[in-house]
Amino acid sequence: MKNFYQEIKERKIRKWFAIYLSSCVTVIGLLNLFSLRYQFPPNIFDSLLIIIIFGFFSVAVLVWYHGKEGKQKIKKREIVFHSIIFLSAVFTAYLLFAKDPVRILPYNAKVVAVLPFLNMSDSKEDEYFSNGITEDILTNLSKISDLKVISRTSVMKYKNTNLSLKEIANELGAGTILEGSVRIIGEKVRITGQLINANNDEHLWAATYDRKMDDIFKVQSEIAERIANELEAQLVPKEKLLLESEPTDNIEAYAFYLRGRELAERYTDEDNERAIEYYKKALKIDPDYALAYAGLASSYDQKVRRYLYPGEWQDSAVAMSKKSLEINPNLAEGHSSLAKSYEAKGDFKLSKYHYEEAIRLNPNFSTAIHNLAVVHFDEGNLDEAYKLVKKSILLKPNDIFSYVLMGGIYQKFECNGLAVKWFEKALTLDNENLLTLLYITEQFILMKDLQSAEKYFNKLLSVYTGNFYVLFLGGKLEMLKGDYSKSKKYFEKSNSINKDGEYEFAYVLKKINRNNDANKILMNEMELHLEQEKEVSEISNLNAKNLADIFGIIGDNEKSLYWLNIAVDRGWTGSGNNYVYPYLESVRGSDRFNEIMKKMQFKVDSMKTIAISFGSELKECN
Predict the structure, then answer these.
(1) Are 591 and 565 contacting, i.e. CB atoms less than 8 angstroms apart?
(2) Which one, of 587, 585, 582, 532, lies nearest residue 565 by Cα?
């Protein structure tokens, strides 16, 4: 061992290694400097690193044989050592550069936005088809639970936009963008698609599919599966089965369905009627087209919900939804349309069940997620509503109705600052939206800021003159201001359109000494609500609250408190309503009233604590 150390000293090995290492550090520093300036490819640095590592062994051999002073002959074994080192370096370089480079996906890669596919066909009439392909590919991706897919309504506004992909992705919170085009050529279709990393414009995948029209569904499922693979998303067997199922084997029926769906989504009464015609044409060709039945059910529901047709159309909606599920029990759209009808009928239990089934089958079904949040909100399950609406906003950014619902939840939590913030956020998207203006006016009423409430109410009145909800709100606002004469006029106008606001009108009549008229209205209202109680007693907290108000105005304090307690037990959470509006003034302040309010507040506080655990801004609650 002593001789070995002596040899190292004589051959000056430590000196040579010190020179070698310092030279390597200098070269690496220079390479890094020039790389920053001229953007050298990574392979140059990798090659230098291989040279440095294997050069270390060559230097060791060179110093051992030639480190002593004087001439030393080159020996055969030295040549063999250098040859082995050289071949090892070449082999290492081959292993490093021959394999595919490791691709590091962005942190939000699995948040996908499918931009509207371009219609490259000669006929602009085929625009509906390219839109339909976009929506169906989006729907297929939505069935993959490991992905987060931005909703169609959020991406459609970027059709023909001048924004860059990065700007679109930033607005939507997406990490990857899928864009493409559709061209119809006779009986064939060409679909191109490319998946892009929105953070650096890197193309993750691109493909062109030239297929017969009859293969359109296979192409859609292939694209979805390929994207899942590229994004390293887990695709469970049931999801794969759902992706590969074909909704119809008739391309003509599919075309009629696409036309119907596009018309229905324009949200006008006339277009909805035309959509119904196209759905029926699709079903005439293919009577087992479950998706067309679901579309028909949704249009029937819209006739009642949006266009104020008689409620009997909801029965037709239920029948069509059930028909779609008889054909395909795993159809998310069928469960969603059935849930909407049950929600409209007031059967929240069945509505929740079918919304949950729709979401189980399509985890990114933003409409079903939002609607389920609304049902929980109406039932008083504020923590569940909050969790769902947060997910809805992620999948459907810049959605007015989700913003309003979030504001409504904060209103129930008595987080006034946050409620106003979300209502104002909704107004930035549409400053004349009816629902938002109604909610923010009510919010300022509950905050007892009648001046701000009046400002927004005047905006409502200027845009929606003659609207029942606006006139009814005007009656309540003037009532709180003490102008009963003006309040009476608003209530009379609203009641000429709809009789839903009768007992509030009766309160005003009492204030102007028209007791006989007021009592007639109150007796009639009481009978109607008690009759309704027999039908929906297990689910209607609002009906119980209305009865509490009616008996409060009548002066039957015992019954008023009885129904108020029932309303709270069923999920009524409008604490501020009980203190701001005067209907319960005869019981307010009593021990029993305070007990009921304390019970309500405990429930609300418990739900607020759960909501905070979701990473909520509720911590800012004022």
Answers:
(1) no
(2) 587
DSSP, collapsed to helix, strand or coil, labels residue 196 as strand
CB 229 within 8 A of CB 221: no
pLDDT of residue 619: 77
Does the CA dihedral 418-355-309-501 come out positive or negative?
A: negative
CA distance 313 to 298: 11
CA torsion sign for 546, 551, 555, 557 is negative
> How many H helices and E strands in the chain?
29, 6
Q: Do domains 111-246 and 247-362 have the same CATH topology?
A: no
559: burial class by Cβ within 10 Å (0-12, 13-18, 19+)? Answer: middle
Q: How far apart are CA 409 and CA 259, in angstroms?
A: 37
3 state DSSP class of 204: strand
CA atoms within 13 A of residue 466's CA, in its CB half-sphere: 0
Question: What are the phi and psi torsion angles at 114 (to 5°)?
Answer: -100, 105
Q: In the chain, which stretches have pLDDT less than 70? A: 1-16, 31, 33-43, 61-76, 78, 81-82, 94, 96-104, 106, 499-501, 536-539, 616, 622
Q: What is the 3-state secondary structure (H, E, C) of 252-291?
A: HHHHHHHHHHHHHCCCCHHHHHHHHHHHHHHHHHCCCCHH
Where are the domains positioned within the chain? 2-98, 111-246, 247-362
The answer to whether residues 235 and 144 touch, using CB atoms and an 8 Å cutoff, is: yes
The C-alpha atoms of residue 354 and residue 352 are separated, in whole angstroms, by 6
Q: Are 114 and 361 in contact (CB under 8 A)?
A: no
Q: Give pLDDT tens digits for 505-550.
A: 999 999 999 999 999 999 999 999 898 887 754 567 889 999 999 9
- Closest to 471 in 3D by CA, of 486, 455, 452: 486
Task: Determine the length of the chain.
Answer: 622
Interhelix angle 416-429/434-446, nearest 10 degrees: 160
- A 10 A CB-CB count for 91 gives 10
- Asked if residues 153 and 365 have their Cβ atoms less than 8 Å apart, the reply is no
Pairing of strands 111-114, 148-149: parallel
Q: Of all residues in the chain, what percent are helix, strand and coil, respectively (each to 5)?
A: 70, 5, 25
The CA-CA-CA angle for residues 271, 272, 278, to 5°, reads 90
Instruction: Report yes or no on whether pTM surpasses 0.85.
Output: no
Exposed / middle / buried, residue 283 (Cβ in 10 Å: 0-12, 13-18, 19+): buried
> Backbone phi, then psi, for 549, in 5-degree steps?
-65, -45
- Reference 17, options 80, 51, 68, 61; nearest CA is 61
- Whether 477 and 552 have beta carbons less than 8 Å apart is answered as no
Read off φ and ψ for residue 194, nearest 5 degrees: -145, 135
Is residue 490 within 8 Å of residue 478, measured between CB atoms?
A: yes
CATH class of the 111-246 domain in this structure: alpha beta
Residues contacting residue 79 through CB under 8 Å, at least 6 positions apart: none
Return the CATH superfamily for domain 247-362.
Tetratricopeptide repeat domain (1.25.40.10)
Q: How many CB atoms lie within 10 A of CB 115?
A: 22
SS3 248: coil
Q: How many CB atoms sit inside 10 A of residue 598's CB?
A: 10
pLDDT tens track for 368-404: 999 999 999 999 999 999 999 999 999 998 899 999 9
